[in-house]
Structure formats: C-alpha cells, structure tokens
Amino acid sequence: MKKHNFSAGPSILPQEVFKKASQAVLDFNNSGLSILEISHRSKDFVAVMDEARALALELLGLEGKGYQALFLQGGASLEFLRVPYNLMKEGGKAAYLETGTWATGAIKQAKQFGETIVVATSKEENFSYVPKKYEIPSDVSYFHCTSNNTIFGTQMKEFPKTDIPLVCDMSSDIFSRKIDYSQFSLIYAGAQKNMGPAGTTLVIIKDGILNKTGRSIPSILDYSQHISKESMLNTPPVFAVYTSLLTMQWLKNLGGVDAIEKINETKANLLYKEIDRNPLFKGVAKTEDRSLMNVTFTLNNPEYQEIFDKMWKEANISGINGHRSVGGYRASIYNAMPIESVEVLINVMKDLENKI
Ligand SMILES: *Cc1c(COP(=O)(O)O)cnc(C)c1O
C-alpha cells in the first residue's frame, strides 16, 4: 500500500508522474525504445530538454525576460562551488546569509575563491529563525541566500532590495509559491525536493551576468558553455530531466505556481494549527519564519516518543523523523503532498492526545 511520504528528499512526486515515468521506461513516446536507452541527441529527447527548459521559465514567470534555464548534474552541492567560480570576481568578494546547514556548505565552497562575508547568521540559535537585519556591502560580486531551510523548517518571506546580483538556493521550495523571480540573477535547485528524482539541478541564469570574473573556468563548470550547448554540453541526466518535465507539466495543468501556493498554504496552516493547538507538541522554527514546505516540531514530553512513533507508522506514514541536527519531527509537505496525507498525520497527533 502506498505510504504517506513526508520525506525531506528524495521526496514525494505526483502519483501521475510516477505512472508516466514508468511507462516511458518501458516505451517512450511509442518509439519502441525506453527513455533509458535513447540517444540524448534524438529528436524526441531534444524536444524534452527544450520543453523542460522553457517550462521552468514559464512557471516562474521568467519567460521572455532574459533568462536561461539549464538542467545540470552534481546536485545543488556542485552549485555551491560553480556559483563563486562563475560569479566571484578574481580577487573580489561575495556576501552570504547563513540560515542553515546548506547555506554553511555554500559559504565553505565560496571561501576557496575569495573573501566571503557572512552578513548575518542564526547559527547561535540552531538556525531556528531567518536573520532580517543586515547590510550587504556595496563591493561584493553577489549576495547568496537560501530561500527555504530544509533541515530547520524556516523560509525567507522577503528578499533584500539591492543592486547587488541576488543568488538563491531554492532547492526545497522551487515552484511552491508566488514571488517575483525576476529579482534574482541566479537561482538553483536540486530536483529531488520539489521537482523530480535526484540527478539533476535546475539552474536559472540572467543574461549578461557571466564572463565578468577574469578567471578561466573549466568547461564543465562554466555556465556559459552549458548555455551555448543548450544544456547538452555532455550527456544530460535523461531520466531525471524527463521526470522533472512531467512534474512541471502536472503543475502547469493544476494552475501553476499561483494555484499550488494556495494549496501549500492550506496544508501548512492545517498542520501548524494542530501543532499550536495540541498541548503535546510544539513547533521548532520561529513562528514568523515557518516554512510552508518543511514543518519541524517536537513532543513536549519525550516519553511519548515511542508510542507516537508506533502510531504514525501504523497509520502508514513514512519519513517524519527530524534531521539529526534538530531532532523531533519534520513533516515535509512539498507540492505533490496531498492534503489527505496531512490530515492523516493530524489525526494521529489528535489520537495521541486522546490516548494520553
Ligand atoms: C538538499 C539540499 C541541498 C543539497 O542538495 P544535493 O542535491 O544533495 O547536493 C542544498 N540546498 C538545499 C536548500 C537543500 O535542501
């Protein structure tokens, strides 16, 4: 029986996407060939890549606005490195906002390329909030932030207004909410949280920001090489790109980012309401910074852990254990998570209260 999958990533995808992706593994477009064995240069796959690149921009409202979309490999972690390689001026600086483990990882890589200024951090409070008061120095090549902190369950509700190019790691909330995406110069997102299977990273780059560092960049790390080869500099992750396209098509049919934002708000509000109402539980993230995607919470009394764990497992729930650095629970309720699954979890929380 299909489980209610609250895993943080790799994570749930729409059931319809699983079905179409498995069909394509057996026979892609009635070609008599599997998606796993066709040439990435075949007409059918080039069409997939072209549509995926165009649809990513369309869903974010960036179509025709001077942006390029790429589907690369190496995970969001490789972008931690590729961003400074391509954007930090030789001998220059970059500014970072440290809001969680992934932001720390990005900072660590940037330090290899030049002075990396951490404008603010919430590390001293185990990243339970998003710092809001900080200044971005005027002489940095870019400012990097993480829109959603997957591990701690916080999310940026606003982004700084600045002339400095904004770079954002949106791995765990891409396509989940309506914001002005054109405020960013570069966006990246590993597919396995809200878009597809592990194996590809969506990178969106504003025209005109590349080739200004004075640094020579190895081809495979050079965004402009990937752009000139239309995201086919080498063999792309064919299946991950195809499955991501299926998810984007699913989202478009649903009404796009506007429609999913409303659904995501409904799901998150239901769950946070129960966390706040139920005397056995408390939230982890500061209320105003709560994520719509990753809901972190704990039991007030750890003695009930065993019985609660047994109850949610019996309810066919999977993947709600918190990250080891936070403890407690984390319910990841990405785009594809049905509201019914959130209700199942809420009912288990209520049942625990009634039992005790
Ligand atoms: C999961 C995650 C990453 C790391 O992604 P990989 O694809 O495993 O490299 C980076 N940033 C955020 C915000 C994440 O949630």
Automatic annotation (TrEMBL):
Cross-referenced InterPro entries: Aminotrans_V_dom (IPR000192), Pser_aminoTfrase (IPR022278), PyrdxlP-dep_Trfase (IPR015424), PyrdxlP-dep_Trfase_major (IPR015421), PyrdxlP-dep_Trfase_small (IPR015422)
User: Per its UniProt entry, what is the enzyme's top EC class, as one word?
Assistant: transferase
Pathway, per record: Amino-acid biosynthesis; L-serine biosynthesis; L-serine from 3-phospho-D-glycerate: step 2/3; Cofactor biosynthesis; pyridoxine 5'-phosphate biosynthesis; pyridoxine 5'-phosphate from D-erythrose 4-phosphate: step 3/5
Binding-site residues, L-glutamate: R41
The source's domain of life comes to: Bacteria
Its cofactor is:
pyridoxal 5'-phosphate
GO molecular function terms attached to this record = transaminase activity
Q: What PANTHER family does the record point to?
A: PHOSPHOSERINE AMINOTRANSFERASE
What are the alphabetically sorted keywords of the record?
A: Amino-acid biosynthesis, Aminotransferase, Cytoplasm, Pyridoxal phosphate, Pyridoxine biosynthesis, Serine biosynthesis, Transferase
Catalytic activity reported: 4-(phosphooxy)-L-threonine + 2-oxoglutarate = (R)-3-hydroxy-2-oxo-4-phosphooxybutanoate + L-glutamate; O-phospho-L-serine + 2-oxoglutarate = 3-phosphooxypyruvate + L-glutamate
Under NCBIfam families, the record lists:
PRK05355.1
Which residue numbers delimit the Aminotransferase class V domain? 5-345
Note describing how the cofactor binds: Binds 1 pyridoxal phosphate per subunit.
Protein's UniProt name: Phosphoserine aminotransferase
Gene transcribed to yield this protein: serC
Question: Per the UniProt entry, what species is this protein from, by scientific name?
Answer: Flavobacterium okayamense
Entries under HAMAP family matching the protein:
SerC_aminotrans_5 (MF_00160)
**Main localization category:** cytoplasm
Q: Which family does it belong to?
A: Belongs to the class-V pyridoxal-phosphate-dependent aminotransferase family. SerC subfamily.
**What does the function comment of this entry state?**
Catalyzes the reversible conversion of 3-phosphohydroxypyruvate to phosphoserine and of 3-hydroxy-2-oxo-4-phosphonooxybutanoate to phosphohydroxythreonine.
Keyword NADP in record: no
One Pfam family in the UniProt entry: Aminotran_5
**Positions where N6-(pyridoxal phosphate)lysine occurs in the chain:** K193
**Localization in the cell:** Cytoplasm
